[in-house]
Amino acid sequence: MTRYLVIRLLESAVTVWGVVTIVFFSLRLTGDPVLLLLPLGSTPDQVEQLRHALGFDRPLPLQYLVFLEHIVRGDFGISTRFGSPALPVVLERLPATMEVALLAMLVAALLGGAAGIVAAMRPNSRFELAAMGAALLGQATPVFWLAIMLILVFAAWLHWLPSGGFGGLDHLILPVITLATYSSASIARLLRASLLAVRAQDYHRTARAKGLAEWRILLRHLLKNALIPVITVFGLQVGLLLGGAVITETVFSWPGEGRLIVQAIQNRDFPVVQAATCVFAIMIIGVNLLVDLTYSVLDPRIRYAEGE
Amino acid sequence: MRQDPTLRKARRITRRAALKLLGSGVVVSAAGLFGPTVTRPAHAASKAVTIGLDSDINTLDPHMTASVGTDLSVISHLYSSLVFRGPDLKVHPLVAASWQPVSSTTWRFTLRGGITFPDGEKLDAAAVKWNIDRVLNPATKARITPWFALVSDARVVSDMVLDVVTKEPYPAFVDQLTEFYLLAPRWAADHNPAQEAMGTGPYTLKEWVKDDHIALDAKPAYWGDRMAFQTVTFRPVPEASSRVSGLLAGDLDVILDVAPSDFGRINGSRRARAGAVPSVRSAMVKFNTLQKPFDNRAIRQALNYAVDKVGLIKSLLPGLTAPNDGQILTSAYFGFNPDLKPYPYDVAQAKRLLAGAGAQGGLDVEFDVPTGTYLLGEEISEAITGQLGQVGVRAKITEMPFSVYMDKFVKQHNMAQMIYLTLAWATLDADGLLTLFEKGNMYAYWSNDAFSSLLDQARATIDRAKRLALYKQATALMREEAPVLFLFPQPATYATANTIEWRARPDDWVRVWEMIPKA
Fold first, then answer.
1. β-strand B106-111 against B151-158: which pairing, if any?
2. CA A181, CA A140: separation in Å to the nearest integer?
3. Which run of H or of E encompasses B105?
4. Cα A164 to chain center, whole Å?
5. Any idea what DSSP says for residue B72?
6. Do residue B64 and residue A83 have CB atoms under 8 angstroms apart?
7. Which of B8, B150, B210 to mutate to test the interface with A (most CBs of A within 10 A)?
8. Distance in angstroms (rounded) separating the CA atoms of residues A182 and A188
9. Of A213, A235, A215, A233, whose CA–CA distance to A223 is shortest?
10. What is the radius of gyration, based on Cα positions, of chain B?
11. Is the CB of residue B411 less than 8 Å away from at least one CB of chain A?
12. In this structure, are residues A147 and A178 in contact, taking their beta carbons and an 8 Å threshold?
């Protein structure tokens, strides 16, 4: 197991290095940010001066080596937009994103999980029809539209909830509902399909024949097997949400990671884009690793030990 | 099939689960009914105002930003400048009580005494000199260095008198100083002005939660006018529809950049009003006169005749603006020529000019438009394309993000044949704006010696009458030569809650002392 983890960590380091390198070069291929920083009407001399001061006039390979040397020390440079170190700028936004992402995934897991289980255990019932219909709508609804409609109805018309911004529970409700909608819908559909497939297996028929209670069969036998594909998708979605759900954060003015990255890209704030993609890559890799380890818990046939 | 008792238990569980969900939903909604209405304050009673901006500020350092609408507006509440521009768009004294040119290259400022920073430092001539030196120092990498490109030195004449020496005459220097805010020298040495603030302005910084809000508190003792609002909150709300919803929900009192299509909804609610003022930013279609076909003046003039500006405004921006008077300056600018008129809408004349230039068979031109940058830019460009099509000019629109558009326009010196552009100059002086069309300027794509010579003469003197006469000629020449398709000043749209009385300023400044609370 340890050997497996070590190999995975090394692979992750290579992946992160690859991501950071690709981002570095593709950013610089799109042009430099100096023009966007100076007031309109600055002369070419003034532009050159700032370009030189920020180090964008050195040859690209040299910039890259300097960049690598700095990031191993955790220094991603100074944000050209904010004027302060880029990595703290990125990490500052992380708690806000994590709050809404994890809460949304929790709601999605509970709601989607419950709906999926009941739909599978009661095939062809009215509940199943309603649940799967709602799930289809949930997956098809554009996030943008849903967010705006929720704000319109609950904030502008009913005055029940705030229209946006960072805060306590009442500020979290609408963004969490928006994010959880798509995830719970896809979890519900996937879990139902997975459970139905698993119910068709021989071991399920054996368990029923033994006279075991339905819910015990569910917990002990069915779920463990049905969850494997669902956990994969769940893990992917958690990773994506941790990177920041840009649309939701923008519409709700939620001070998160996604908004930061997109604005940094538009403003050509290279240090922040680099720091954010690096952090994002590490988080996704971490989540994927957790998902892979969960497989071995769910399915004893999957073991990451030597010699298997 | 006989009902298996274990099945029934399972169903009970799921029903229980469903009831739990329903119950918690009811509780949440009930909390929503009673909770927020109790916690959110009624703004009419307390003297607080919340302003919705379209993005968060980048920095609190007054020398590291040039954006008036966000950063500098917030900064102007915390710090003071030598002079400021009032709602009448005229320059008024603030820290500088008076100023005059002592020679064509030296401006003398006499400061109003008695202003100190909260840490005790005096805002005197030495402090102002320190600020100017900071901008001129290359190590600072100040973003506003271009504004001081003509400044060679600042000299302390006495405690409250400062001379600023320029390399060449700089007639619009004082106008430029309306955007220059003053830090405390000793404080700035061991604090980070980008993140913290301590200034001589009417407000102190209470807190800045990045991307969420900036809260300011009025100072109990301020050397200037008394403030009507005790608390000011700036909230970045990037999504336009969320700003409108926020206004209607009562979370925001003032918002900017309101889409004209939302005016009806806002004015129809009983909580807020929407409106617009013509800004100092003029929209235009800029021609690349260095290439065909726009190297031909007749063709450029033809396109000016071919666009029905009045009709365009009526359909896209009804009642919000009016066509530019044959120049890119608006009446707010020094150097505006009141004698010029817009090109009339004359399709016949346009076709005649095109035929005379040998283009009666039609023309194909590229038209670059930046997305999400200018108010209704994409829609206006499409409307213009339709109108040009009627005289046989087929414009092919290519939309692109602003950064790519700027790259092509400025960095690669590869501007398309036509681009949709808006231009303004914060000093409201013709020199700044017209210089963008001077021969050799990287934004110009126009090479006219007579025009450049007029600008040179106008900036070599600080005599206002002489300058006005020269700009009269320059603007007339520009209209005749038509290096752009003149359009109209872009409207500055805004909306306020009924508890606030305020009109947006044409020059983007957002300042709470220009807002009046209504009971």
1. unpaired
2. 10
3. none
4. 21
5. I
6. yes
7. B210
8. 10
9. A215
10. 28
11. yes
12. yes
State the nearest Cα–Cα gap between B401 and chain A, in angstroms: 8
A176 near A99, Cβ under 8 Å? no
Secondary element (H or E) of residue A67: helix A60-71
Chain B 224-243, CB below 8 Å of chain A: which residues? Answer: 235-239, 241-242
Query: DSSP characters for B383-415?
Result: HHHHHHHTTTEEEEEEEE-HHHHHIIIIIS---
pTM comes to 0.85
Task: Report the gap between the CA of B444 and the closest CA in chain A (Å).
Answer: 10
**Inter-chain contact A156–B66, Cβ cutoff 8 Å?**
no
C-beta atoms surrounding A4 within 10 Å: 15
Q: Which amino acid, residue B361?
A: G
Q: Supply B165's token pair.
A: 């020496």
Between strands B83-85 and B272-287, the pairing is unpaired
Residues 183-202 of B with CB under 8 A from A: 192, 194-195
CA trace torsion B370, B373, B379, B384 (10° rounding):
-60
Three-class DSSP category at A83: coil
- In angstroms, the separation between the Cα of residue B509 and the nearest Cα of chain A is 16
Are A253 and B248 an interchain contact pair (Cβ–Cβ within 8 Å)? no
Q: Say yes or no for a CB contact (<8 Å) between B407 and A35.
A: yes
Amino acid at B221: A
Other Cβ atoms within 10 Å of A168 Cβ, number = 10
For residue B230, what are its two tokens? Answer: 């005790």
| Close Cβ partners of B193 (under 8 Å, ≥ 6 residues apart) | B59, B60, B61, B62, B64, B183
CB A261 within 8 A of CB A273: yes
Q: Is B22 on the interface with A (CB under 8 A)?
A: no
Pairing between β-strand B213-218 and β-strand B231-236 as defined by DSSP bridges: antiparallel
**Residues B215-245: b if buried by 16+ CB within 10 A, e if exposed:** bbebbeeeeeeebebebbbbbbbbbbbbbbb
Q: Specify the length of chain A in residues.
A: 308
* A230 vs A66: CA distance, rounded Å: 43
Collect all residues of chain B within an 8 Å Cβ-Cβ radius of residue A46: 145-146, 149
Q: Nearest by CB to B411, from A35, A164, A166: name it.
A: A35
Q: Tell me if chain A has a CB within 8 Å of the CB of B30.
A: no
B146 inside 8 A of chain A by CB: yes
- pLDDT tens-place values along chain B, 519 residues long: 444 444 444 444 455 555 555 555 544 444 444 333 333 444 443 589 999 998 889 899 999 998 898 999 999 999 999 999 999 999 999 999 999 999 999 999 999 999 999 999 999 999 999 999 999 998 898 989 989 999 999 999 999 999 999 999 999 999 999 999 999 999 999 999 999 999 999 999 999 998 899 999 999 989 998 999 999 999 999 999 999 999 999 999 999 999 999 999 999 998 999 999 999 999 999 999 999 899 999 999 999 999 999 999 999 999 999 999 999 999 999 999 999 999 999 999 999 999 999 988 889 999 999 998 899 999 999 999 999 999 999 999 999 988 889 888 988 889 999 999 999 998 999 999 999 999 989 899 999 999 999 999 999 998 999 999 999 999 999 999 999 999 999 999 999 999 999 999 999 999 999 999 986
**A-B contacts (CB, under 8 Å):** 170
**Unique residue bearing structure tokens 């129809």:** B268
Nearest-CA residue of chain B relative to A79?
B58
Measured between CA atoms, how close is B75 to chain A, in angstroms? 15
Q: Give the whole-angstrom CA distance, residue B466 versus residue B463.
A: 6
